C-alpha cells in the first residue's frame, strides 16, 4: 500500500501549480503529494486499487475503494480511470452528473464552547451556519432532505459539565420542508437512552409534531414567544423540556431558564457542555447531494 496523498493539519499548501503536482511536494512523514509522474508509474506496474481513508472532525472514519485504478502520463494530462461499478465503502461515490453520499450518521447540530451564536432568524436556520469542524447547524433545508431519504433515527449525544455523557434515540425521525414549517415527527414510544425522554410523551411540551420556531417566525403553541422565553430556536410547543439551541453555559441563563438544556438529565435548566444531534440512516442507500458536470 503506497500513500500518495496525506493531509492532517493544514500545514502544507495544496493550492499549487502544475509542475508542483507533477513532481510532488511535502514530506512522506507529514502532509504531502507524491507527484503525478510517480503516481502514473505506480498505477501501471500491474492491477491496482484506489483506497481512500478519511476521518471526519467528529472522529468518525470512512473509506472508499475502487478497482483498476490508473493515472495516465503527462501527455494525457494524468487522466484518471477506475473500473465502473467497483465502489466499496461507506464514504462517497462519484458517478456521471451526481455525487452520491452513503449516509450512516450525520451530525446536524454541534455545540462545545459557545463560540457560535445560535439565537438567529429563520433564514439562518434554513440555510445553516457555523463550520462542520466546530459549532454549527446544518440547515433545515438539508435536514429535511436527509430525513426523507429512507428510514432515519434521531440520535442525541450530550455531555454534562460534570463530564458525564447521556444519549437519547428516537425512531422514524422526519423533518418536513419549509412549506410545512420544517415540522418534526418521531415515532411515538420509540425513545431509548439515559438522558430522559425530552422530545415525546410529555404532552404540551413535546417538540414532536411541532413546526420550527425562530425569533422572527413564531410557530409554537404558547401565548407568548417561546423563542424569546428560551432565547433559542427549536420545535417549541408550549415551550419545551429541551432547548439545545439556547444560550450556551450555566451563567445567567440558568436562572432565566434560557440555557442549552435537556431538562430531564438533572431535572433542572442546567446547560450541557457538549451536544451532538445526529441523523442515523438505517438503510444503505445513496443520496444525490449535488449535481455536477459529467465532463
From TrEMBL:
Domain annotation Fibrinogen C-terminal: ranges: 1-64, 65-283
GO cellular component: extracellular space
InterPro entries named in the record: Fibrinogen-like_C (IPR036056), Fibrinogen_a/b/g_C_1 (IPR014716), Fibrinogen_a/b/g_C_dom (IPR002181), Fibrinogen_C-term_domain (IPR050373)
Pfam family name, one: Fibrinogen_C
CDD domains registered for this protein in UniProt: FReD
SUPFAM superfamilies, A to Z: Fibrinogen C-terminal domain-like (SSF56496)
Domain of life: Eukaryota
Protein name from the UniProt record: Ficolin-2
Species of origin: Magallana gigas
